[in-house]
Amino acid sequence: MISALKKLEWENHRKPLDCGSPSNAALCIVNPLRGGDFFIDMFSTHPPMEARIKALEKL
Question: Which of 12, 23, 35, 42 is placed for a possible disulfide with 30 were both Cys, Cβ 3.0 to 4.6 Å?
Answer without folding.
Answer: 12
